[in-house]
Design brief:
- The chain has about 475 residues and is α/β, with parallel strands linked by helices.
- The strands form three sheets. The protein has a five-stranded parallel β-sheet with strand order 5-8-9-4-10, sandwiched between helices. Strands 1-2-3 form a three-stranded mixed β-sheet. A two-stranded antiparallel sheet has the order 6-7.
- It is globular.
- It is built from 22 helices and ten strands.
- The two termini are about 25 Å apart.
- The structure holds adenosine-5'-diphosphate and magnesium ion.
- Magnesium ion (MG) binds near residues 170, 239 and 240.
Length: about 475
């Protein structure tokens, strides 16, 4: 059986999804499990009033998460712990100091007053700069093109950067903006495609009511304002363009914005998870425009680059030292996604500071919940594999149909998700189109029983386990 810390990490994972992030960060995250006995788990908190706050608002949610993970009905009590309170205070002070230092550095860097305000008007995140982007084989082309464009070289318009999630596209976009603005005094605007869409809707409809279109003069005035916002600039940086694919009105406005900027010689930079040709439902005219610029892809950084990124995280964290062995271990665990790698590192740093432990490989394994991470199999992956196996689509399993073939595949998916991920019943229900957690329990139990007497079902499930484990 997994130790208490590991079990608690699983509970946290469930609670993170169920409790609004502000409350979760303030009350739940600082809890440390101390004892499990007689059907009761004792949790320590740095604050005196956590028990009251949590029991009142989230008592049921916590009880459910505990029973999902520990597979028994557990009571819980929350006690204030002085040592934890001290540590917490220290941590808070350290954070405040880091924030102050960052603010001072930012101030020193600013060439003119009001830079901060301007950065926020442009929606730029100063965390992301060229200086802290680690360059390696897989991203050097994207980095070089971004830097060149930021410096004003005519390399292509738009610059279109594409690649998988967590590989640094957004980072580069902000870095371009920051550079162009601070070093070349250019007018910059960063926007995600989703924000662009929402902004457009707000200007098109009255008071957010989709039925009531703004009429005549008022609408024109609003639209002129909207257009000015996106056209009166030197650099337009659009993140995750795939989001607007198939949304015709937004695509049209984007097309017009693009043409205006393009013909005025302004630079546009776009990111996406796929190259233009592969974005489903994107209109041909936008595809053609995007392909007319410079297309660069950003790939998964190799081991050395991932290690260099971790070293950089260690330096900027300032509170933790990692041996080369541990750095390499982390870099090998997180192969595909730098965002995940950063999260893993943050977990290690927090774990070592809360428990006062040295970051050995064993400690790191606990801190990142190694077994879970190793699996890295999500409900969605399982649903997709099960659907494929039965000649169906993921949407069929998430949909309402109760046709025999679909219902059968759905219950197999429930069974495999629970066995391989240990996710809570509710989260399994959510991943299958928002079904009730009780239904999930019933389906799981059904498969468990059927598979003892139904050889075909049993074989199918074993084959699926093999397929999924080899992914
Ligand atoms: P994407 O937009 O491609 O999904 P992000 O730009 O949001 O990815 O990157 C995820 C996280 O990983 C960010 O915190 C970013 O700073 C970091 N990151 C990604 N690539 C690098 C890199 N080459 N050097 C340093 N940090 C990186
Ligand atoms: Mg991004």
């Amino acid at each position: 059986m997994a130790n208490l810390g590991e079990q608690w990490t699983k509970v946290l994972k469930i609670l993170e999804e169920k409790i609004p992030s502000e409350s979760y960060n303030a009350w739940v995250l600082p809890l440390v499990p101390s004892e499990l006995s007689d059907g009761k788990i004792t949790l320590l908190s740095p604050h005196g009033f956590t028990a009251l706050t949590l029991k009142k608002s989230y008592g049921d949610v916590i009880s459910r998460a505990l029973s999902d993970v520990f597979c028994e009905q557990l009571n819980f009590e929350i006690l204030q712990d002085e040592k934890l309170a001290e540590l917490y205070e220290k941590e808070q002070k350290k954070n405040k100091k880091t924030e102050r230092l960052q603010a001072e550095n930012q101030f020193k860097e600013s060439k003119y007053d009001g830079l901060k305000q301007m950065l926020s008007d442009c929606h730029l995140n100063t965390k992301y700069k060229f200086e802290n982007f680690v360059v390696g084989g897989a991203n050097k082309f994207a980095y070089g093109a971004s830097k060149g464009i930021a410096e004003g070289k005519s390399l292509g318009n738009p610059l279109f950067i594409y690649g998988g999630s967590g590989l640094g596209k957004t980072h580069l976009l902000h870095a371009i903006g920051y550079f162009a603005m601070t070093k070349r005094n250019k007018k910059v605007k960063y926007v995600t495609a989703e924000e662009f869409l929402n902004d457009l809707l707000e200007h098109l409809y009255l008071g957010g009511e989709k039925e009531t279109f703004k009429k005549g003069a008022e609408k024109n005035k609003k639209m002129i304002k909207f257009r000015q916002k996106y056209r009166d600039i030197d650099f337009l940086l659009i993140d995750d363009i795939q989001f607007i694919a198939g949304k015709e009105r937004t695509e049209e406005e984007m097309f017009n914005t693009f043409n205006t900027l393009y013909s005025a010689g302004k630079q546009i930079v776009i990111t996406s998870d796929k190259p233009p040709a592969e974005i489903d439902h994107l209109s041909d005219r936008l595809k053609t425009r995007f392909e007319g610029g410079l297309l660069v892809d950003i790939g998964i950084p190799d081991l050395e680059t991932r290690m260099a990124i971790i070293k950089q995280l260690v330096d900027s964290d300032g509170a933790i030292q990692l041996s080369l062995e541990v750095i390499e271990f982390l870099a090998r665990v997180y192969k595909n996604n730098i965002r995940e790698l950063e999260k893993g590192f943050n977990n290690v740093s927090a774990y070592c500071s809360i428990f006062g432990e040295e970051p050995t490989i064993d400690v790191v394994k606990k801190a990142i919940n190694y077994q879970e991470v190793q699996k890295q199999i999500t409900s969605d992956v399982i649903i997709s594999e099960v659907a494929k196996f039965y000649g169906l689509k993921s949407e069929d399993l998430k949909g309402l149909s109760r046709v025999g073939k679909i219902a059968n595949a759905r219950k197999v998916a429930v069974y495999i998700i629970r066995e391989l991920t240990g996710n809570s019943w509710q989260s399994i229900g959510d991943s299958l189109g928002g079904r009730k957690y009780t239904t999930m329990m019933v389906l799981h139990k059904g498969v468990e029983e059927d598979k003892r007497i139904d050889k075909k079902l049993c074989d199918e499930i074993n084959t699926l386990f093999n397929i999924i484990n080899q992914l």
